[in-house]
Amino acid sequence: AAGQILPDRIQTLTDQPTDHSFDIRWIRQQAQKYLFPDQGILDELQFGFRNNSSTPRHTRIASGHTGAFTYQDNITASLTSDILAGHVQGPYTVPPIRPCRVHEVNVVVQAKSSGGFKHRITTDFSESASPSSINMGIDLSQEPPHRMVRVLSFCLAIAIMLSSCPDAHVWSSDLVSAYRQCPKATSELWQQLRMWHGKFYIDLRTVFGDASMVHKFTRVANLMVFIIKARQRQRQQAAEDNQQLSPNIQAWVHARRHRLGPQQASLLWVAQYIDDCFGVSPDKETATVDFTDAVHVPERMGLPIAEDKKTPPTRVLDVLGANITLD
Question: 275: helix, coil or strand?
């Protein structure tokens, strides 16, 4: 005793296939077909995401941040929605997993580019910078290195495309609550308890506030883009074989392939920044096909796209806070 946790009192949950909407069979088929290199993220999609925090497991119960009490209706509405969607279990009168962390939640108000405000629910895995927080125990160096998407890279791709494709078009789409689509590994559910109005809840999905999730979901985004690009390469190769490309585009492709290699001869530039997907294609017709497939791939994987945030091929696009015009 003496304040120590007795082993027979620890409720240990082992990892198992989780309840999620991902079509794991299709995802693995595509990954195998196109030789996707990051097999680890496929396992996390199936068995749940782990941050592997080294923080000692003991019970800590925290109240909400000021924002949670200021915007109580938003917390209640979000919790109700998550319960109905099967993303949260509860309520419980006592913590159903012990030892556990009952984290502070907060509401961050963000301005929308379209006007108005968005109330984002966050979970404080840093526990106000506590040295024994979940986030402090996460070793991000264990995650594969990744490069963040930059608007400048998109602009450079557009400029290169416009040099020989004056009718180039851009497009974009946006996932619905990206992190909330991802299951949390069963063995780490002890990290994800909430307390609201005197009741306890288990959050079964990954949360905004877990320091590992930017890295984790970047790997999911890489998987989506990898499949989208592979499918586009097949379409482009068929068009080249059947001589369906215009003479100037065909010359552009051949010149770039000869000078820079096949990776720089693609007629599609596409990127995914967490939940935002955007790309540029050589003309409106091709852009329509590319856009349709860029929506189809995540939806086929099991990641829904926000209907009101689909931007079909256009010459003017708002993306990542930037307004881009091709005219």
Answer: coil
Sheet of 88-92: strand order equals: 60-61, 101-102, 193-196, 199-203, 88-92
Q: What residues pair up with 270 in beta bridges, in sequence order?
A: 279
Look at the block and give the residue holding tokens 């938003």: 74
Only one residue has tokens 């404080």, namely 124
Average pLDDT along the chain, 327 residues, taken 10 residues at a time: 44 60 94 94 94 91 80 90 93 90 86 76 82 90 81 93 92 94 93 91 93 93 96 92 86 86 87 93 94 97 94 94 91
Q: What is the dihedral of CA 104, 105, 107, 113, to 10 degrees?
A: 120
Cβ proximity of 203 and 312 under 8 Å? no
Name residue 87's amino acid: H
Alpha helices per DSSP H over the chain: 24-33, 39-47, 66-70, 72-85, 151-162, 213-241, 247-260, 284-301
30 Cβ contact partners less than 8 Å away, ≥ 6 residues apart: 36, 227, 230
Q: Which tokens go with 191? A: 């990290």
Instruction: Report residue 38: phi and psi, to 5°.
Output: -90, 80
